[in-house]
Structures are given as C-alpha cells and as structure tokens.
C-alpha cells in the first residue's frame, strides 16, 4: 500500500501571457486530495476520472506493463470542489502518480511529476513546493520564487462550474496578449513581495491579474468585491482564471474576517457566491 496527497489551489495568484505563452502561478491551500494505491482487483476501485489514466501513465514511465494496472486498486479521500478552478484534477492526478511510484518503491522529481500531469491535461503548479511560474500546457517551469509566508484566504465558492476543457475552448489569445504588460507587472510584484518577505504585497500582484482576467472570464460582482477589499483593508483578491471561485487575501491577526463575512452575506455578492471557506496559503508539493 502507498499513499500520497496533493493540495488544492484557490485559483491562481496570477495567470496570463508572460514571456511568450500563457503561464500561471497556482495558489496552494491547506485542502488535499489523498490517494491510496494498493494491490487488488481494479474493478473494486473507488476512483474519479483521470485517476486510472494517471496510474497507467505512471506505470508506463516506470517501464512496467500497463496490464499490471488490473491488479492495482485506487481509493481516494477528497472534498475539493470539482470544476470550480481549485485544481481538483491536478491534485487527483499528481497524488495518483506519486502513490503509484511509491507502491513500486520509486520516487520522481517535481519536474518529472509536472511533465506527466501535463500529458493528461493542462495542470496546476501545486505540485511544486515553491511558488512556480508554470507553462501549464507544456509542463515547463519558467521561474520559482520560494515561499510566500503566512497568508489567509477567504474562498468564495460559486455554484457555477467550468471544466478545464471548456475554459481552453474560449478564444482568449487576443486578450491575453493585450494584457501581457500588466501580467509582467504582476509577476514583478509577486517576485518582489517574496524577496522582501512582505506577504501582504502579494495582493497587489493577484489583484492586477484578476482585473485582467475579467476580459476573458468575468466574475460576478467583481467591482463589489474590489470595494470590499478596500473597505476592510484586505491585501487583495485573486480568482480562478479558468474557474469560478474568488479568494480574498488577508491575515487573521490584522483583519476581522467575520466582519468581511457579514458584509458578504448581506450584499448581492451572496447571490453569486453561496459557500465560504477559510483557508491558508501553504507550500505546494505532494506529501
């Protein structure tokens, strides 16, 4: 038996056209998909889409016949919302691949894991311990920035869903390229905030990226959310650029999140975002 778990993401810290292609930096949070791979009849597995494909891909990369998958059982434990832009698929895929490797007493690097994940679908950079600027289609790392420090996130979850495949069918290249200067600015803010160990400055970067994302996948009541950030002196907001969730960035010792929640619940925002989760930004990487 082997187990692995990978964190979810509250959308992205930034995503857009950077250095010649669309790239992203995920926002890993303390919410996990845990996968267990054991010897047993595959027909008795409890699994979600792409888990079996991830297991077979891991076997191929280990030079083990794919027919061996018939004798491997998958089970999972995850409450990460699906099709909301919270990296549920990447968490499932990355944890399944890693658990399969561990089942055969093998290990793989973060870059190897990211490359394998990207072969199944565009993936998130939650597989890296450091905040990572990542070409999510090619599985290529462009830059790594280290850790962000302590930061809390109030996740506003919409009942609306959007699959990764549906997002990638949106014709968005024009808007992406047009916003490239703003995204370069956002990437600079992010790198600077980590270098200076000023976690609050991350909000500058995320808010710039979120504003640009409105041209491609608009979030309901976005201006109301910006006003909420200003009213409560929050660090900023971030969004799922290919999903429907929004994150409000704050520090529990500095901001009264109950007051923020009160305002959310008693405003039109509550009609568009019906569930709320208090999480923390954490280091990425499969455990």
UniProtKB/TrEMBL annotation:
Gene name for this UniProt entry: pduX
Domain GHMP kinase N-terminal: 54-122
Enzyme class name: transferase
Keywords: ATP-binding, Kinase, Nucleotide-binding, Transferase
MF (Gene Ontology): ATP binding; kinase activity
Pfam families the record matches: GHMP_kinases_N
InterPro entries: GHMP_kinase_N_dom, PduX, Ribosomal_Su5_D2-typ_SF, Ribsml_uS5_D2-typ_fold_subgr
Protein name, as recorded: GHMP kinase
EC numbers, comma separated: 2.7.1.177
């Amino acid at each position: 038996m082997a187990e692995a778990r990978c964190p979810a993401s509250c959308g992205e810290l930034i995503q857009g056209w950077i250095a010649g292609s669309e790239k992203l930096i995920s926002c890993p949070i303390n919410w996990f998909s845990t996968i267990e791979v054991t010897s047993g009849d595959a027909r008795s597995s409890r699994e979600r889409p792409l888990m079996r494909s991830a297991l077979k891909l891991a076997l191929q990369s280990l030079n083990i016949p794919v027919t061996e998958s018939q004798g491997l059982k998958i089970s999972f434990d995850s409450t990460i919302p699906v099709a909301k832009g919270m990296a549920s698929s990447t968490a499932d895929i990355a944890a399944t691949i890693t658990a399969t490797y561990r089942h055969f007493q093998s290990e793989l690097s973060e870059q190897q894991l990211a490359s394998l994940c990207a072969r199944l679908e565009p993936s998130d950079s939650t597989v890296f311990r450091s905040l990572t600027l990542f070409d999510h289609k090619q599985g290529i790392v462009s830059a790594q920035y280290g850790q962000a420090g302590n930061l809390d996130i109030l996740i506003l979850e919409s009942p609306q869903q959007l699959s990764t495949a549906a997002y990638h069918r949106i014709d968005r290249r024009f808007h992406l390229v047009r916003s490239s200067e703003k995204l370069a600015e956002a990437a600079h803010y992010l790198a600077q905030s980590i270098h200076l160990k000023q976690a609050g400055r991350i909000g500058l970067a995320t808010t710039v990226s979120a504003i640009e994302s409105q041209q491609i996948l608009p979030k309901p009541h976005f201006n109301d959310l910006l006003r909420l950030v200003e009213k409560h002196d929050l660090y900023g907001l971030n969004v799922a650029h290919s999903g429907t969730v929004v994150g409000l960035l704050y520090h529990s010792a500095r901001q009264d999140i109950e007051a923020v929640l009160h305002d959310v619940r008693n405003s039109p925002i509550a009609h568009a975002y019906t569930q709320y989760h208090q999480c923390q930004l954490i280091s990425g990487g499969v455990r």
